[in-house]
Structure formats: C-alpha cells, structure tokens
Predict the structure.
Amino acid sequence: MKQNSKKVKSIILSFLLLVFTFSVMFTASSCFAGSDSGINANTAAEEDMEDAEISDEIEEEVVEAVKSEDLTDYDNANVGAEIKGAIPGFLCTNKDNIITVEVKNTSDFTWRVDSRYPVKIAYHYYGQDVDANDYDGTSRSVFEKDVEPGETAKVDVLVNDITQPGNYVLQIDLVLEGKYWFSSKGVEMLESPVFFSECGQ
C-alpha cells in the first residue's frame, strides 16, 4: 500500500512541476516580446491551449490513479459477513459442484472484485473417514461486482477439488486474498457434513 501511495505522490509532484515549468516559460516569453508582439501573442495563445490540454490529460491520469488506489486499512478494519444457504448432503467427486449461497456484507469496507486485495468465496474441507483435507488451496468463486457494506449478493460457489470418495465436513468461507480468511476474524462459516462419491454421466 505504501508503494502505491508513493506512486500517487510521484504523479502529483510531476503534475505540479509541469505546471510550474509552463508558468515560468509563459512569463519568460511575455517579458521578451518585441515589436512582433502580435505574432508572439498568437504563438503564446496556441502554446497556452496546448499546455492546457496537457495539464487536463495529466490531471485525468492523477484522478484515475487515485480512484484505483485502494487505501483501505484491512488489518484494522471491522470484518463481518452473513452467509446463508444449504450445502447438499451428497456431492460429486468427478464433476463440478455448484452451491448457491447468499452473502451479506456486514464489514465496514467495500468488498472489491478488482483490487490488489479482492474478496472471494471459497471453502475448506476435512475428511471424516478418509485422509484428505485442504484449508487454503481450494478453488475460488468471485462476486459479479463490488459489494458495499449492508448489501447482499448471491454467489455460485464452485466445489471441484475433492476427488476421493468419503465423508467430509465442508466449510464455506470468505477470503480477502493476500490478507486473511474471514473466519480467522470471527466470521461464522456455512458448514455441513457431505458425502462425496462419483456421479453417473
């Protein structure tokens, strides 16, 4: 985040330096205007227009850079979510499984989909009668758009990493990529026992 802030500051400083340079150039050209002041005035006017266009372009770049900068303090944010839905008691080991859930953002920050730290939905699983489990490496499912605090969104959770038949505990959880699982912040997961086996074609 510090690196991104430095980038924005650098862009803003460059913009201010360019404006200052143009101001000095304009002042100098006005001081040295002679008998051909009419020609110089036209040239100065054209240069002013070009300078204004360049300044507008730089200003737009600065605005876009600031807008795209995610300044949320995720380490100290209030993290919250409500996950509702039903996990089937039987799922397939040889096919993609889709579980539709409804998730409400009770955090104090927007869940961004296009960010350095996007919020996604995934799951953990633990084998009950088989030696198979995975906490971090399961597939991720994404929200269609940013979810503002207080908003609710439906998500199709893809479950496709369990290939060994048996009884499991499946836990649906949210993750702030690059930071933490929501459950590590006290958010309750959607959890249920599931039997996985091969499904017919």
